[in-house]
Each structure stands twice: as structure tokens, then as C-alpha cells.
Design goal:
globular; alpha/beta; 435 residues; 24 strands; four-stranded mixed sheet; UDP-n-acetylglucosamine1-carboxyvinyl-transferase, Chain; 2 domains
Length: 435
């Protein structure tokens, strides 16, 4: 059984924040669609990024890994795509990566033949109807199975008008933004509802601009895309990930002492909101010699946390709220139910096991602060990297040890998490719980 027994131990020391998974996905895709050789530095080969790399290689990109530098020979480096020929041509294994799946589906229509998307975990339960509606309108052939990822697509997208809801996932919009500039004609994306996760669109637009693609953004309601554009190869450094930094920033809110390196405080990442939320709760942050840290100025107090623009940091912020004075409300977070796990249910269930007082609602949480967490139980990550890392940080403020089941799922986004946790003083041992 994949378990670790984690003892209560404060974290102290310095950590280099891992590179942004969100930006790495985008950089790999843009480099792969380019007309030359790009070098992407400060990249972490997490399971999700490996899935995107393999997907783009299936279309003809060539990639060479060298420590934290990835060299990418773009698909259009020789003018026309040069798809590799092998028995698995057309098979795209997205593993558990929703970004890979939704970004690559429209990109696949740029290349001839049938494309077969497969995956694992809850990926097959993530809605794709936005794309299915487009396929129906444009006569693209597709088939799928309910409840699992087994999707087959054949056909080419056409330039023109695309009407897309903005309240399901911004990933659909990003997927189209990657694809439409390479079509022969001009296109327009019209957002038909309120747009959630605007910051992720900003990240996509930023990456596209860096690789030579021009998009006109009309107040996030319409996007105008000229056709016949070309991605330009370049060297690109992936900035640090605020969704991963959030674990250590919350650790500091709980009186740990971690100094974070490599954060870009001017980042467009929506998860940078973790700083402002923790400031509302009573944190004070400091910059020093290129690093970043913080500590609570007073007892943490409850607040309202809107999950619509920063869903990935809700699990770890729920831990901070669980130990804050008063009642915190997490709102507009219904999309967390269709992530790697039902994160609203997972975080409420597991933190409650060790002493929290959290009530689930349809699209949020009601968190009544408690003085401390007692630990002493087995908890489960739900095979979700963000739940596993939240529980690890929770262990630092428990009175007794906790046993975390399925802890290795952190490889999805932060392969070195447990190594960094240990370097900072975290104390844990592998545990054979038996079956």
C-alpha cells in the first residue's frame, strides 16, 4: 500500500518553487507548432507535462530532454509537418491531464488521419461537449464512450465564428486559440457566458505572443484571430508556479518558516491570488534578496474565497481557513468536483478526519475555524496531487502523526515534493499498511 506516516514537524528552510505547469504546457505546445528549434528551460517533467510532450511528438515535433532544458524541433521546422511513422500513430495518451486533453483536441484536427484520445482516472468524466457541438456544426467525425476517455476524431476545423461558453472551462478557449491562427482564414471566438478563469486565458495569450502569434482580445468577450500565422521558435524560460508556492505560503501562515525562491510577483498566473487572500486573513509578506516569505501578523481570521478564478489553490486555502478564527465561505467552486477528484468532497472529508469542521455545499464549502488539528488518523489523497500535498502541510500542525494513503500521486505536478518536504525538515517514513 502506497502510504507515508508523517509526524508533526515544523518546516524550516529554503525551497526553489517548481516551474509553472500551466506555462510549461503552453510553451511545449507553442514550441512544437513552431517553424524552428526552441529551448525551454526551467521545465519540470511531471506526468502532465510528459503527456503534452508525447501528444505533440505524435504530430511530428521532435524533443530532447537535458535535465531541466527541453529542446523542441517544431513540426513546421521544414515547412510541412513530418509526422513520425509508427504503430501508435494517432494514439494520444493524456494520462490524467485535463490540460493536455482539451488543448490538444482541436490541435489534432490540423493533421490528417484519425486521432484516438485515451486517459486515466477521472479524465473521462470531464465534459467535452463544447468541442462536440463544434464538431457537429462543422461535420467533423467523432465517437466517444461515456464515463471513460476513449475519443476518436477525424476531420479538420474550419476558420470562422466559434461561440463558446466561458463558465465550463477556459481550456476549451485556449485549445482554439492555439489552433485557429494556423487555419487558412480568419476566425472569431465569441464568449457566450461570463468567463471564469480569465487568468488562464491571459497565460495562453502571453505564450502565443511570445511565440509570434497575434490575437486581438476584445474585453474577454470576443477574440479575433488572423489566419495563416506562423509560430516562431525561440528560447523560453518557464516561470515558477504559484499553485505550488501556495502550499508553502499557507505553511507559513500556519507558523512554519519557509523562504521561497524564483517567484515572479508580476506573474499573470491567477493563483498569485493566494497572496491577497492570505493577506486578508492576516498574513504579512516580505521580499529579500530575490526571495519571498511571510508570517501571520496576528491570528488568522475568516474570509470569503471565490474559487471561480483560482480553483487550484482552494484545497490548500481550505487548510488555512480550517485553522482561522470565524467562518470562511468558499464560493463559486463547483468545478472542483470534476478535477482529479471531487476536491470539495475530498478536502472536507480528509481534513474533518483530523479535526477540522467543514461542511460541503453544492458549489463551495463552509469552514468553521478550530483551534488545532489533532491528527491520529489515516487520510486519503483520493489519488489527487493537490489533496496529497495539502495533507502533508496539514501534518505540520497536527498534534499526532497522520498516515497519508496514495501519497505518490504528487508526481502529476510536483515530482520532487516529498524530497523538498524532507529537506525543509518534514519527517515521514514509508509505511506498509497492508491490504
Amino acid at each position: 500500500m502506497d502510504c507515508v506516516l508523517v509526524s508533526p514537524k515544523k518546516l524550516n528552510g529554503e525551497v526553489k518553487v517548481p516551474p509553472s505547469k500551466s506555462m510549461a504546457h503552453r510553451a511545449v505546445i507553442c514550441a512544437a507548432l513552431s517553424d524552428g528549434i526552441s529551448r525551454i528551460s526551467n521545465i519540470d517533467y511531471s506526468n502532465d507535462i510528459l503527456a503534452t510532450m508525447e501528444a505533440m511528438k505524435s504530430f511530428g515535433a521532435k524533443m530532447t530532454k537535458d535535465d531541466d532544458v527541453l529542446e523542441v524541433v517544431g513540426i513546421y521546422a521544414n515547412g510541412q509537418p513530418d509526422r513520425k511513422s509508427n504503430i501508435d500513430e494517432g494514439l494520444i495518451d493524456c494520462n490524467e491531464s485535463g490540460s493536455t486533453l482539451r488543448f490538444v483536441i482541436p490541435i489534432s484536427t490540423l493533421f490528417p488521419g484519425e486521432h484516438h484520445f485515451i486517459g486515466r482516472g477521472k479524465l473521462g468524466q470531464r465534459p467535452l461537449y463544447t468541442y462536440y457541438q463544434i464538431f457537429d456544426e462543422q461535420g467533423i467525425q467523432y465517437s466517444y464512450k461515456d464515463g471513460e476517455l476513449d475519443l476518436r476524431i477525424e476531420g479538420s476545423l474550419k476558420s470562422g465564428l466559434y461561440e463558446v461558453p466561458g463558465n465550463i472551462s477556459s481550456q476549451f478557449i485556449s485549445g482554439l486559440l492555439f489552433t485557429l491562427p494556423l487555419l487558412d482564414g480568419d476566425s472569431k471566438i465569441v464568449i457566450t457566458t461570463e468567463l471564469e478563469s480569465k487568468s488562464y486565458i491571459d497565460l495562453t495569450l502571453s505564450a502565443l505572443k511570445d511565440f509570434g502569434i497575434h490575437i486581438i482580445n476584445h474585453n474577454y468577450q470576443q477574440f479575433f484571430i488572423k489566419g495563416n500565422q506562423k509560430y516562431k521558435a525561440r528560447d523560453y524560460r518557464v516561470e515558477a508556479d504559484f499553485s505550488q508556492a501556495a502550499f508553502f505560503l499557507v505553511a507559513n501562515a500556519l507558523n512554519n518558516d519557509v523562504f521561497l525562491h524564483d517567484l515572479n510577483l508580476d506573474s499573470l498566473q491567477g493563483d498569485k491570488e493566494v497572496i491577497h487572500i492570505l493577506e486578508r486573513m492576516g498574513m504579512k509578506f516580505y521580499q529579500d534578496n530575490g526571495g519571498f516569505t511571510g508570517k501571520p501578523e496576528k491570528e488568522l481570521t475568516a474570509t470569503v474565497i471565490d474559487g471561480s478564478q483560482c480553483p487550484d489553490i482552494i484545497p490548500i486555502l481550505s487548510l488555512a481557513a480550517a485553522l482561522s478564527k470565524g467562518t470562511t465561505k468558499v464560493i463559486n467552486a463547483g468545478r472542483l468536483r470534476i478535477k482529479e477528484s471531487d476536491r470539495l468532497h475530498a478536502i472536507a472529508t480528509e481534513l474533518n478526519k483530523i479535526g477540522a469542521n467543514i461542511i460541503e455545499q453544492k458549489d463551495g464549502l463552509i469552514i468553521e475555524g478550530v483551534p488545532n488539528l489533532y491528527g491520529g488518523n489515516k487520510v486519503w489523497s483520493h489519488n489527487d496531487h493537490r489533496i496529497a500535498m495539502t495533507l502533508a502541510i496539514a501534518s505540520t500542525v497536527c498534534k499526532t502523526s497522520i498516515l497519508i494513503e496514495d501519497h505518490e500521486c504528487v508526481t502529476k505536478s510536483y515530482p520532487n515534493f516529498w524530497q523538498d518536504f524532507k529537506i525543509l525538515g518534514g519527517r515521514f517514513i514509508e509505511w506498509d499498511y497492508g491490504e
